[in-house]
Amino acid sequence: MQISRRKFLRQTAYAASAIASASTLAACGIFENSPQESESGEEDVERPVTQDKRTLYIYGWATYINNQEVLEEFTKETGIKVVGDAYDSNEVMLAKLEASGGRSGYSIIYPSDYMVTQMRDLKLLAPLNKKLLPNIKNIAPNYLELPHDPGSIFSIPVSLGTTGIAYNVEAVNSVIGEEPFDWNYLWEHKEKLRITLVNDPREVMGMALHILGHSYNTKETEKIEQAFQKLQELMPAIANFTTDAWRDPLASGDLMMCMAFSGDAISMARQDPNIKYVLPNNGTSIWTDTMAIPRGASNIEGAHAWINYVMRPEVAAKISDANSFGTTNKLAKTMIPDDLKAIKALEPSDAITARSDRITKLDPEVLQIYEGFWTRLTTGLG
């Protein structure tokens, strides 16, 4: 049993833009759409295992493969055409690569941090040739030594995301009179609040574990049960558990605040000044998206060229602008748009980072414990 903490990412916010961009890119010969789709909406095709080196097949989150300007410039410089397929969860990507036995046809993938660990253990990733990646110097050194891949042997972190609180400023101030500052705020004002939590057991249970002083990744049943009991106290304030259906109710004031992922919340805050996104002072969940080369990739040289290209500061800044995530590129931070830079919660401060955690891979038997308590919580079984 694998629990996705990123399945929310592109199912709604980027669906329309992905379709529009795909059509445009297909017309100019840069991006090719697949003719068939799976039941989950993902393109269900077989990519050629033996390819010429003038084509690069990428499998990733939609925001990384539908940026027309980024794709066109890469093709213009290298002569390599990009063919991109999108997935909406790490688990979909993992299943496809496992089933291929290293012959998926893709030469670039975008696994999230915890999935890098899992794929590394399954020997599904090819080691990177750092000699072909001179632009790695642009990545902040602390991101090259993260626990999921110390030394960035198999992956390069590209985007930084967080989990925090999105809220309607007018609604919160009119009812409570003070804006949220940490996770405890939810419990302190639970009689007055109407909120949503993400539909993700690892994130929600992890948040409760965190404020109880435990790790997001604890394996102890007793501590997981304590988190479940803590969340039960909050149930009267919870409208539902959703990762993406909170936007319109929050904008209208029907919801006062929502547990949300940074890309979604910051994108909304950039469009509506009455919406803010805050990182809890007592710490939260921090995560990264990465670029990696799957085992059996056909175009190793082209894959390294793509990774090196994306690590250019100006390219990294365009990607950050498109997905409203923080960037791991230290030089790109000065190049992102002013409205995005102005959002303090775009990247956690050193103090918040020190109090935060990263969700890591857990064994199936431990995940079943989380899932059991999650089912009881979300179905009201107590």
From TrEMBL:
Compartments where located: Periplasm
Signal peptide from the UniProt entry: 1-26
Protein source organism: Pseudanabaena galeata UHCC 0370
Stretches assigned to coiled coil: none
Top-level taxon of origin: Bacteria
Pfam families in alphabetical order: SBP_bac_8
UniProt keyword Transport present: yes
Keyword vocabulary terms for this entry: Periplasm, Signal, Transport
Protein name: Spermidine/putrescine ABC transporter substrate-binding protein
